[in-house]
C-alpha cells in the first residue's frame, strides 16, 4: 500500500481561501471529522481520520476513520452494515476539521450503543451540578 | 480562581448510560466542541474546551473555548460581539465530544474569515486529485 499524502498549503491565504485540499493533521496524524445526516442535518458522530482514512474515503465514497482505541483503520459499517455513503465533504477554514454529509446504510445507526446518533444526552442543571438526561424523541435528537 | 473539575465515570456503563457529566479530556486537557445554529442546525465551527472553558460555558450560558493557537481561554465574541448563547449542550457516548446548540450575537458570524460558518468549502474531484470549491449560498451552507 502506498502512503497517502496531501499537499501542505504554502501560506495562510492558500490554506483559508485556496482550492487545495491541504489538511492539517495534528501531531497525532489526525484531523477531526463530523458526520451528519445528509438529509436531516442531524449530527451523528465525531471521529478522526489520518491521511490514509481520508484518501480511502475520497476514493471509495464511503467513510473510513482511524480508530484511536484500536489503533487501526476503520471502514465504518464493514461489520455492522452501517456504511456511511458520502454525499458531500466540507473542510473548515484552517483545514483541521472535516464535515461529512452522509447517508447511513443498514439499520441507519451510527453509535456503538445502538442509537442513531452518539449525541443522545443533553446537559442540564442539577442541584449538585450538571447532570445528563436523555434526548427522547427522534425529532428532538435532530440538531435542527 | 479555583480549578474547574468534573467527575470521572467509574465505569463504561456510567460513562455511556449514566447521568453524570464526566467529560473525558484528552492528554492535552481538551474535549472537542461542535457549535451548531440552534434554529437551523447549520454546523458553525469546531473548537476545543478545557475544564475551565466548559465550566464557564455552563455557568454563564455563553460559549467559552480554549484557543490552542493562543494558549488561552477564549470567550467567543468578547471582542467581535459574536457571542454564542447556549440553547442546549449535548455530550456524546464516550463523553469526549460536546455539541453546542447556540444562537449567535452580533452580525451572526462565527468564522474568523468573516463568514457565518467555518465550513464554507466542499471537496470535489479534480483532474489531479481533490480540490476545494466554495459553498455559495446561505441555503447551501446549511448542513441540512
UniProtKB/TrEMBL annotation, chains A, B:
Annotated SUPFAM superfamilies: HisI-like
Binding site for Mg(2+): 92, 94, 96
Main location: cytoplasm
InterPro entries listed in its UniProt record: PRA-CH, PRib_AMP_CycHydrolase_dom, PRib_AMP_CycHydrolase_sf
GO cellular component terms given for this protein: cytoplasm
UniProt remark on cofactor binding: Binds 1 zinc ion per subunit. Binds 1 Mg(2+) ion per subunit.
Subcellular location: Cytoplasm
Keywords per UniProt: Amino-acid biosynthesis, Cytoplasm, Histidine biosynthesis, Hydrolase, Magnesium, Metal-binding, Zinc
Summary of subunit composition and partner proteins: Homodimer.
HAMAP family recorded: HisI
Name of the protein described by the UniProt record: Phosphoribosyl-AMP cyclohydrolase
Organism: Salinarimonas ramus
UniProt gene name: hisI
Amino acid at each position: 500500500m502506498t502512503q497517502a499524502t496531501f499537499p501542505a498549503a504554502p501560506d495562510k491565504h492558500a490554506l483559508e481561501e485556496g482550492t487545495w485540499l491541504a489538511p492539517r493533521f495534528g501531531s497525532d496524524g489526525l484531523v477531526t471529522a463530523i458526520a451528519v445526516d445528509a438529509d436531516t442535518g442531524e449530527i451523528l458522530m465525531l471521529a478522526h481520520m489520518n491521511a490514509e482514512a481520508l484518501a480511502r474515503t475520497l476514493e471509495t465514497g464511503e467513510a473510513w476513520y482511524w480508530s484511536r482505541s484500536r489503533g487501526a483503520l476503520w471502514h465504518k459499517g464493514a461489520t455492522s452494515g452501517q456504511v456511511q455513503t458520502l454525499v458531500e465533504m466540507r473542510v473548515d477554514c484552517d483545514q483541521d476539521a472535516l464535515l461529512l454529509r452522509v447517508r447511513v446504510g443498514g439499520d441507519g445507526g451510527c453509535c456503538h450503543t445502538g442509537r442513531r446518533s452518539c449525541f443522545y444526552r443533553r446537559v442540564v442543571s442539577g442541584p449538585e451540578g450538571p447532570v445528563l438526561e436523555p434526548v427522547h424523541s427522534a425529532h428532538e435528537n435532530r440538531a435542527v
